[in-house]
Amino acid sequence: xxxxxxxxxxxxxxxxxxxxxxxxxxxxxxxxxxxxxxxxxxxxxxxxxxxxxxxxxxxxxxxxxxxxxxxxxxxxxxxxxxxxxxxxxxxxxxxxxxxxxxxxxxxxxxxxxxxxxxxxxxxxxxxxxxxxxxxxxxxxxxxxxxxxxxxxxxxxxxxxxxxxxxxxxxxxxxxxxxxxxxxxxxxxxxxxxxxxxxxxxxxxxxxxxxxxxxxxxxxxxxxxxxxxxxxxxxxxxxxxxxxxxxxxxxxxxxxxxxxxxxxxxxxxxxxxxxxxxxxxxxxxxxxxxxxxxxxxxxxxxxxxxxxxxxxxxxxxxxxxxxxxxxxxxxxxxxxxxxxxxxxxxxxxxxxxxxxxxxxxxxxxxxxxxxxxxxxxxxxxxxxxxxxxxxxxxxxxxxxxxxxxxxxxxxxxxxxxxxxxxxxxxxxxxxxxxxxxxxxxxxxxxxxxxxxxxxxxxxxxxxxxxxxxxxxxxxxxxxxxxxxxxxxxxxxxxxxxxxxxxxxxxxxxxxxxxxxxxxxxxxxxxxxxxxxxxxxxxxxxxxxxxxxxxxxxxxxxxxxxxxxxxxxxxxxxxxxxxxxxxxxxxxxxxxxxxxxxxxxxxxxxxxxxxxx
Amino acid sequence: xxxxxxxxxxxxxxxxxxxxxxxxxxxxxxxxxxxxxxxxxxxxxxxxxxxxxxxxxxxxxxxxxxxxxxxxxxxxxxxxxxxxxxxxxxxxxxxxxxxxxxxxxxxxxxxxxxxxxxxxxxxxxxxxxxxxxxxxxxxxxxxxxxxxxxxxxxxxxxxxxxxxxxxxxxxxxxxxxxxxxxxxxxxxxxxxxxxxxxxxxxxxxxxxxxxxxxxxxxxxxxxxxxxxxxxxxxxxxxxxxxxxxxxxxxxxxxxxxxxxxxxxxxxxxxxxxxxxxxxxxxxxxxxxxxxxxxxxxxxxxxxxxxxxxxxxxxxxxxxxxxxxxxxxxxxxxxxxxxxxxxxxxxxxxxxxxxxxxxxxxxxxxxxxxxxxxxxxxxxxxxxxxxxxxxxxxxxxxxxxxxxxxxxxxxxxxxxxxxxxxxxxxxxxxxxxxxxxxxxxxxxxxxxxxxxxxxxxxxxxxxxxxxxxxxxxxxxxxxxxxxxxxxxxxx
Amino acid sequence: xxxxxxxxxxxxxxxxxxxxxxxxxxxxxxxxxxxxxxxxxxxxxxxxxxxxxxxxxxxxxxxxxxxxxxxxxxxxxxxxxxxxxxxxxxxxxxxxxxxxx
Lengths: 611, 490, 101
Hints:
heterotrimer; A: mainly alpha; 26 helices; 2 strands; C: Helix Hairpins
């Protein structure tokens, strides 16, 4: 079959499902569900067929022509897009299936499934984009789907506020990205990604190094917004207001990874700008550590996972910026799988036990939900980097990449973040698995000991993936067409050691029978305060940025009312007043008019007579 | 000369006006149907013109020339170029949707439709005439009915708004009229024909002197910062369909005038003044967005968003004149006129509906309206997202083109207006959050949502936005040849 | 009798008329003043006609036209005054000042 047709089907099937569900099946959630699932299935099959077909030449067609700008949109088939596209399609489908169970009791199911369809379309469209502007369009549409899904329960003010915050903060990043890509268009006249990457004729040849740095930094601003890097990261924890399947799909596995994907897509260009790479390294390392520390003290399971996503995205960017293209992409894919798994497990607990609090989950008998708990442990192990689960291999690659780069501070940062990751992950596992005192579980739905099958099936599938996908590194490297060096077991030892140390500390703090269950960080008061307040970034936005914006708007509003309006009103009033002043000259007395007229005529007569 | 389709487009509303005036005021439904039929016919003819326009050839087509007053050189010369076709279509769509939006009006129906149709006639005339005299004639016809329309059928400080609007627009005309006469006189050709005048080379000094008069004269109607004050007030006070026509079409007359008269006849003046006017336009973009952030009334938010979006149109025109990315800038300006017209029409149509039901347009009065009026709110959200420049909806493309031209021509302005996108998103989402999301206000539980045919005009506009959002070529192919011609002069 | 004597008489008549128009409050009196001024004009025409004009008929014709005009004017003026009287119950100029600014 023609690959273009397959791609069109893969990307547009979810869109069709979205449109049909929203337009015709608003009142028939079952049909809407079915059609969205069908669309998701088409995407899975299509993306897997494309993946099986392997890399080939991109296709393009003219979309837009204005003046000397001609945009040719199309699809790109290289290892990166094929592998990530398949991952996106599969996870999207898994989560659609999962949502059948999770959203079973929600009255607005159609809207939910339709929006999942919208997201599937936008995300797949983004992944396969051959044109930078096309990618930007889908990037924005992904943000739109995220807005609707975070605000799905829009009657909750916190959800509405979180949706707005997510949209605005990513928009801030998008402004940078937009400026960046417009500069690209203005300097080389094309948006075609393969052409831009060309070392001879592409962007590197067209721009001076300084300009290239500016452009890449601007693009990185967009990545910071989408992939939630400091200081534009605060929307992601708030985005947990959305339903858990959404958090699993958008806000951990796929959408937030779009930024990393874009980095990988433009990797050669980033590599050409040393300043940008250093900036990225600093920001991503800092983000990884910052978010790990917050995850250490959070009690809400979704928030822990959200901060963990931020930190793992930081890891990926560190890897990419350190030149570890393969490491970054590998971690992107493994993370998508195991983090989706973790969120689905969290959703399973939340759905079944009706609480987000980890201690509460433990107390209400979370561990009795067998499959969910297996998923949590495997996924958590993968996140922490326990060998031989998926995360271990990809993190190993990242450490290797950073050691090649050879800047000590980043290596140290990565180790610290990995240690903290292991610590907070196992804190979560121990809190749920080994609760302080067990009470009888309060069964929310009164049946079974675990969530229903539509929720468990994706969990099981992703558990297998999280356990096994780490061994696919060699295959992925071949697909991406990169050399992958073999790591000796001895070089892996420090990483394993650091992870085990993290796990041990978590055991000491939360696992053992006599544990205090407060965490070692409570001993250091100032740090604990800093972490529980999320490093005051949110407070800074709320108190400084939001207020400044508000003040500026208020100032301009005053200018509008007091300046423009009043001055124009004043001018109009001046005219009226002049009129009423001159009107006083009109006495209405006919004789005075006559006298004036005669006097004037006499003066005129005298003047003419004397002339 | 073939079938005089442009005259027929003009005749549809004109005949409807005559019929309505001859109808007794009590026969309300006949009046409505007359208006609806005439608007549907004009829409059909506009589609015919759109399809029949040979975009590859470009230039003026569908010409009709009848001498009118030969002694002073006034000719009934009707013809459209690419962007004229687009704007005719815009006017037809808004007219059609506007008539349907006001279907439930009960106060002085006959007079209302008579004035509204008079306005539409004027707008049609401006978009198709190629004679300076008729241009000004139709221009005034379009402007004047606003006064009674707002005064009689308006709300919220309607006397003030009507007077303010009238004073601003007539002040604009007062600048404009001498400028147009000066152009006629200076050329010394004894003709008002725009085609002939466009070929005449005016001296540079004359152009530089006259251009600001003409530009500001038209600019007032286009909501040019800092002479935009009439427009939000007017939008707020006017009844829904009048707001639709007003923001959707009438403001485009100003921008169209700048493009079709000022830039076309006085290119040197345009080049001379472009940096200053581009600065004003860009200031308007940013300023409108920030002020919209502070509004408490739905319609004021939209009103200031119009100032902001029309700033993009004027900016596009001025950037086009500067000659570095002319075609893109002109394309952006014209496309934005169209997209913004449809978008604001949709906004006002929906807000008008909510206002008619709830008798309130204060944002803070609502909250959680999404679950009470899901259809109306969904449609409003589409319009809002279009306003925020989201891809997939029509206004993304023109904004991108103008941004592109700005980045190329004056990077500073480019960065400022792209950054203003954040503010735009902020004011749009603020309305969503405060009025549509959150816990539903029980006060509005009994409100009826859009039902049946009421959805139709709004759905039509949504469909247009989506269509051009996905297929920008449909628009750019149409206007491209004409804007290229225009851009070739700079 | 010289031309100067007639002109002086005319001037006197005109001044009297003008003074009447400007000083009297009763509109009938003002009408009388206007009549006096018109008579002064007629007198001037006739005097010039008698002493300097080559064609003796023109001045007389003009004088006749003025007489006719005066008659028409009086009738219109009086009919307006009737209406004014009905509306304002008086015909002095102080009372009729609706155009006061």
